[in-house]
Design goal:
The chain is of the alpha/beta class. It has helices at 12-20, 25-36, 39-48, 64-76, 82-91, 93-99, 110-119, 122-138, 163-183, 237-243, 263-271, 290-303, 305-316, 327-358, and strands at 147-155, 196-200, 203-215, 221-228, 253-256, 275-278. Helix 2 packs parallel to helix 6 (93-99), helix 5 (82-91) crosses helix 6 and helix 5 crosses helix 7.
């Protein structure tokens, strides 16, 4: 089975529709993104890692790049569900033009978009993320000037339940997993069993936790991963720093708040020759000196850019609440959200640069 192929030469109808939507703001933004990004290496990555059937019969598969672009649209425009995304693509000519779908063709079904997430694992998406960051680097956006690390709580998609009930449901799930191995029947997870409880601002929260790193100069997201909410931020410090290295050089310095203060993290940075920008906190047997307090203030002015990523994606992408009930899907979804954030940030920055150059 091969992928669907579409004639890229525009018809008379296509040209008329393109002329009609020329002044659409969404069309202009998406056209800017299309010109900034070289999609060919990204298409090669997703095609090589996208499994399709080998049968000569049946419908051809949609190109995986088309489906990836559709999910990016979902992030940029705050579309909450896959059925709604399908409807929006059918309704908007700008969406069809961006994903490369002829205006006369219907949108990919929402179930196809859903299966694309399952078939395209996080490893493939990480390769795409790496390729995008290297493209942005060639455009003059830094990816190795310095790194800021932080974490945020992501509320569960399911209704909160007690720890006792959660343990019971996990035991039942393990039993069903054993039965699945015997019967080969697919399992349906109707409830989030990967989340658990933590305390945020003196309030209990049921959910997961996103750990991320960004470049302190460009503000681009370098790495992201999702864990249970109860796991401490510092446990993922070395992981997000290592995953955030995309250039030829190590980051000159890594900045983080007081939650990451500890000897293991400082030793990790020293061992790899990376400057330490972790804020200090009072210890049982010692309080902060005036010099350490001033140092913390300087660090806080640098590491605030990661709060911009959390704030923008929380407000416009709905990233403060989980969309799925498994950690595997949430990891994929947050990485895709980071890619969408980076692309939009670069597009806006380049537009501002052109406006300044024109004045």
């Amino acid at each position: 089975m091969a992928f669907k192929e579409y004639d890229k030469s525009p018809t008379f109808l296509d040209m008329e529709i393109q002329r009609a939507v020329t002044h659409s703001r969404n069309q202009q933004v998406l056209s800017e993104i299309d010109t900034i990004i070289n999609w060919e290496p990204i298409e090669k990555i997703v095609q090589e890692n996208y499994p399709v059937g080998q049968s000569e019969y049946g419908n051809k598969a949609y190109p995986p790049l088309m489906l990836l672009k559709a999910i990016l649209l979902q992030k940029w425009f705050g579309i909450k569900s896959d059925p709604d995304l399908e409807s929006q693509i059918n309704d908007r000519f700008s969406f069809k033009a961006f994903i490369g779908l002829p205006f006369s063709e219907p949108s990919p079904d929402h179930s196809i978009i859903c299966r694309f997430r399952e078939r395209t694992g996080k490893e493939t998406l990480e390769k795409v993320h790496h390729e995008l960051l290297n493209q942005f680097d060639t455009l003059g956006f830094s990816i190795e000037s310095g790194m800021a690390v932080d974490a945020r709580v992501v509320k569960s998609a399911s209704r909160p339940i007690s720890d006792r009930k959660l343990r019971e449901l996990r035991e039942k799930r393990n039993i069903r997993l054993q039965m699945k191995k015997k019967t080969q029947r697919a399992m349906r997870f109707q409830r989030d069993l990967d989340s658990d409880w933590t305390v945020k601002n003196n309030k209990p929260v049921f959910g997961m936790k996103e750990h991320a790193s960004i470049d302190v100069e460009s503000g681009l997201v370098l790495s992201t991963c999702v864990s249970k909410a109860s796991e401490h931020d510092t446990k993922y410090f070395s992981y997000v720093v290592t995953k955030g290295i995309h250039g030829r050089k190590l980051p000159s310095k890594v900045y983080a708040d007081k939650g990451y203060c500890g000897e293991p993290n400082r030793d990790f940075l020293n061992m790899n020759g990376i400057g330490g920008g972790i804020m200090r906190k009072n210890q049982i047997n010692a309080t902060l000196t005036e010099a350490e307090i001033q140092r913390n203030k300087r660090i806080s002015k640098i590491r605030h850019k990661i709060e911009q990523y959390f704030g923008i994606t929380h407000k416009y992408h709905g990233a403060g609440k989980a969309r799925f009930t498994t950690m595997i899907k949430e990891n994929w979804d947050h990485l895709c959200g980071a890619m969408a954030f980076n692309i939009k940030r670069v597009a806006i920055s380049m537009r501002k640069q052109e406006m300044i150059a024109a004045t």
